[in-house]
Amino acid sequence: MKIALYLVMTALSIIAVAAEKKVAMKDLPPAVRAAIEKNTAGSDVKGISREVEKGKTLYEVETVANGKTRDLILDANGGIVSVEQEVAIDAIPAGARAAIEKKAAGAKIAKVETITKGQSTTYEAAFVSKSGKKSEFVVNAEGVPQK
Fold first, then answer.
1. pLDDT digits over 98-146, tens only?
2. Judging by beta carbons within 10 Å of its beta carbon (0-12, 13-18, 19+), is residue 145 exposed, middle or buried?
3. Are 36 and 74 in contact (CB under 8 A)?
4. CA distance 81 to 48
């Protein structure tokens, strides 16, 4: 029984370490604050959170511009790790669009995002089945499933 309790407590502490914590702009490192100001001009900043993942501190900035979401993940030096940008399905490559539409057959596509990490871009679709089940599907530009 003690071993099981220990395992549960260890798992919970790991989850707590990786959990996102809301953070105010004034509490950010100067390089992160400057990067956010530079990269969110013309957008509404909806929230900023900090997370430690595999020993690295990351900051997620949630924004909205022209009714579309755009999330930035920044490292502790203000470098952009990834960008998730909401787009219309018609704005993504034909191979990605065809694969997403095929996978979502009979479901409602709720949101499509481009996810850019360095020079790599993938396309993620969130959809809801007729029964209400939510799913996500990620493909590359040619429509090959990712993750």
1. 999 999 998 999 999 999 999 999 999 999 999 999 999 999 999 999 9
2. exposed
3. yes
4. 15
Q: Provide the b/e sequence for 123-141 (b: ≥16 CB within 10 Å).
A: bbbbbeeeeeeeeebbbbb
46-80, pLDDT tens digit by residue?
Answer: 999 999 989 999 999 999 999 999 999 999 999 99
- For the beta sheet containing 21-22, the strands, ordered from the edge strand earlier in sequence to the opposite edge, are 21-22, 44-53, 56-65, 68-75, 80-87, 108-117, 120-128, 134-139
What is d(CA 104, CA 121) in angstroms, rounded to the nearest whole number?
A: 20
Determine the 3-state secondary structure of 133 from DSSP.
Answer: coil
- Which one, of 53, 56, 47, 58, lies nearest residue 80 by Cα? 58
Torsion sign, CA atoms 23, 24, 25, 29: negative
Distance of CA 19 to the CA centre of its chain: 14
